[in-house]
Amino acid sequence: MLDTTFDRIVGDIGNPDTFSFPVIYETVTGAVVSKVVHHYDDQLLQPFIEAAKRLEGRGATVITTSCGFLSRVQQEIERMLTVPFISSSLMQIPFIEQVVRGEVGIVTARATSLTEAHFNGVRSRMPTAIVGLEHYPSFRGAILEQSIPLDAIAIQEEVIQAAKELLVTNPFIKAIVLECTNLPPYREAIEKATKLPVFDLRGLCLYVMASS
């Protein structure tokens, strides 16, 4: 888990009620949004590895993270574990492209920070269709800046608007992947608004847990 203060509503990876099975957490002290999303701090790798190994030691059978931008260190962390490690919903991209027989679009917390390194980390190519939420005030203020209370209704409207913007500029996409782990609570609303299948980290975790 990143070191954050905002509310984590049901559906968010950081809310244990998001899942029907027991969940245990480890927060990486100092892993604030600015050091993971805005400009990744390489010195955080070892603390993340240590947190993952503690979870494994506590009995975790699958380990994930609370930020899709950690895809860039997927391979470094997974090789230190003996259980499945899911760094990001971006891991699904190659599979989804085969399922929908077309390209996917990405809704991310901050498009200006999402680079090829994040996709290379999970062995995926970088899609051309990407939209960020950094310019939407409710999301930016609550999640990226943590300067205002989280307003789920306002954020849902912003995410829907962003997804529609993605479709207008990239009408060829066949599915949407939500990079941000704070967005699964709005997945169904996005699907309804866009008429496209929407994939997120929660769904990926459920898929992997079903076979663990």
Description:
The protein has 212 residues and is α/β, with parallel strands linked by helices. The chain has two domains: 16-88, no CATH class; 89-200, 3-Layer(aba) Sandwich (Rossmann fold), CATH 3.40.50. The protein is 38% helix and 8% strand. The protein has nine helices and six strands, in the order ααβαβαβαβααβαβα. It has helices at 33-38, 45-57, 74-78, 93-100, 116-120, 137-144, 152-169, 187-194, 201-209, and strands at residues 63-64, 85-86, 104-108, 130-132, 175-178, 198-199. Strands 4-3-5-6 form a four-stranded parallel beta sheet. A two-stranded parallel sheet has the order 1-2. Strand 1, helix 3 (74-78) and strand 2 form a beta-alpha-beta unit. The radius of gyration is 16 Å and the shape is globular. The protein starts with 32 loop residues before the first helix and ends with a helix. The relative contact order is 0.16.
